[in-house]
Amino acid sequence: MKARLTARDLTLAYGDRVVSTQIDLDIPDGAFTAIVGPNACGKSTLLKALVRLLTPATGAVRLDGRDLAAHRPKAFAREVGFLPQGLVAPENITVRRLVARGRYPHQSLLSTWSPDDERAVDEAMAAAGVTELAGRQVEELSGGQRQRVWIAMVLAQRTPYLLLDEPTTFLDITHQYGLLALFARLRDEGRTVVAVLHDINQACRFADHLVAMKDGRVVAEGTPADIVDAALMRRVFDLPSIVMPNPAIGAPMVVPTA
Amino acid sequence: MTGDAPPVAIRAGRFSALVERRTVAVSLALLGVALLLAFVGLSHGSTWSTPPEVFAALTGRGDSAVVILQWRLPRVAAALVFGAALGLAGAIFQNLTRNALGSPDVIGLDAGAYTGALVAIAVLNGTSAQLATGSVLGGLLAAAAIYLLSLDSGLSGLRLVVTGIAVNAILTALNSWIVLRAELDVAIAATGWNAGSLNGVDWDELHLPFAVIGMLALALVALSNAMHQAALGDQLAVTSGVGLNRLRLLLVLVGVGCTATVTAVAGPIVFIALAAPQIGRRLARAAGVTLLPAALTGAVLLLCADLVAQMLLAPVALPVGVVTTAIGGCYLIWLLIREVKRR
Fold first, then answer.
1. CB distance A104–B235 less than 8 Å?
2. How far is CA A232 from CA A3, A213, A227, A238, A242, in A?
3. Who among B9, B15, B239 is closest to A51 (CB)?
4. Considering only CB atoms, which chain A residues are within 8 Å of B288?
5. For a FRET experiment, which of A77, A125, A230, B143 has its CA 20 to 30 Å from that of B326?
């Protein structure tokens, strides 16, 4: 398993408050990795460390063997795209303008709307299914539409890596599956996708690689078929359950019995 | 609104940009209004000049050339350039704080710049270089104080604005104290100027400030893309490649530079920086607080206020700051009520 993006012996903290310790992680190239775990287990914090939003207290996150801090901001942003939670759009912005903001790391002082930018924005809007919203104000959209616009923005960044913090929140189930299928398609095109997901069954269904976290540590890592069983569910989520093969696709399926 | 025509792509060689039609139209209209007001400003005096006289003077001919070119033109030019500089400073700080109330005059940067200038007069001789340096240092110190006091809540949000309002109150009191304690001649010099005034401004005072504002505006053009990107929030700004700390430092320097340069010459002219970016934004219906409409609106507002200041109690010319305070005060109350209601 090859991995350009690696984390070694991380301690993650906000000031004095330590959130995570002893994290060692390789993000497999060209795979869809899902990070799962209960609320406040350090999933989002780990993602922040992977996209240089949080400097580790100890240890290092590296891309191509170089510490993230050693990468130039724009060059790194052409490699790794990130979608955080709880975004607020600038006032009065149209969908197309917002998606175009994803092109920032590819632009220079003089060139802010090259043919490449235009193509990337059009393709990203098509992929996220927001083409017909192009001229609308982001403020007028529903929560689900808005989320897809943000996804289009990070797609327009055209990065080999795509990291997303709970991207399916606010979406109805149709759009949740649509989005996960989109990530799988991007993975098939050669991109590396890392997403924090809440729904363990969706993670099992779509991810190649699962990282299960609890209390700030990685407790299990591997393919869903290898690691997901009733014991893991009890250990990570404190949830009694039966795990059986999904009748549609064969991946593990968790049926809570609580 | 969804009725606006889609933006136009402009490309030439390596240059490319996406331009909103409405922003262009609004900017041209504002420019037209500014030129019209400038013409009125050149015509107005103890006796009105006719349009042919003004045109003749502008080409260096006619009897009133000296009056128009040496007395009226510097004042009109100062109103345009200073208004634009204040509009830009307001746009910068409203972007930085992501709040319509976060403008340099509200959060005490004008007052801080004025404190610096007062110290330069009261302690040193008060040459124009000392005034300018004192203003910039005072503005920067006020900015640093606000930053340190609101460090917990980060650089954005209403808390920073409230901290700034408190700093503004303290500095205003400090300014009054300095004037009261100063020698009589210093106090008279300071009072004539503490409301913000363009009365009696001449070309010699304007060369340096115009050059400084020009350079700051150029620097701002170079920073503007990053500034608008930062409006997406800290996280997306960083992960899309904005060097956020460096950007903020540079923006504060440019914003304080604009405010302090104006304050050093004309005293603290408040409310232009507060109102111009928001009026410009509403006119242009652009995304976020854009620079060009803010600058042009600032120029129009200050020129307009200065004309009112000259005409209201003619032949006595009021300080323009009195007029901007009167208009802006009403606007500030409306804005405060709206901000509080939103929460």
1. no
2. 25, 11, 7, 9, 11
3. B239
4. 90-93
5. B143
Cross-chain CB nearest to A104 (options B17, B229, B235): B229
3 state DSSP class of B164? helix
B68-87: average pLDDT = 94
CB contact A93 to B (< 8 Å): yes
ipTM: 0.93
Selecting from B9, B232, B287 the residue whose C-beta is nearest the C-beta of A113 gives B9
B198: which residues sit within 8 A by CB, 6+ positions away? B75, B78, B79, B82, B266, B306, B320
What is the pLDDT at residue A146? 94
Which of A48, A112, A151 would best serve as a mutation to test chain B binding (most B beta carbons within 10 A)?
A: A112
Nearest residue, CB atoms, A112 vs list B4, B16, B232: B16
Inter-residue contact B206 to B77 (CB < 8 Å) = yes
Shortest Cα distance from A245 to chain B (angstroms)?
A: 38
Residue labelled with tokens 């997306």: B236
Give mean pLDDT, residues B28-39: 97
Residues B90-144 have pLDDT tens digits of 999 999 888 888 899 999 999 999 999 888 888 887 777 888 889 999 999 999 9
Q: Using an 8 Å Cβ cutoff, are A209 and A13 in contact?
A: no
Give the C-alpha separation, B220 to B224, whole Å.
6
Contact A91 B287 (CB under 8 A): yes
Contact B239 A114 (CB under 8 A): no
pTM for the model: 0.91
Specify the pLDDT at position B122: 82
Identify which of A66, A123, A133 has the alpha carbon closest to the alpha carbon of residue A95: A133
How many residues would you count in chain B? Answer: 343
How many inter-chain contacts (A to B, CB under 8 Å) are there?
A: 103
CB within 8 A of B42, min separation 6: which ones?
Answer: B49, B54, B57, B58, B68, B72, B73, B76
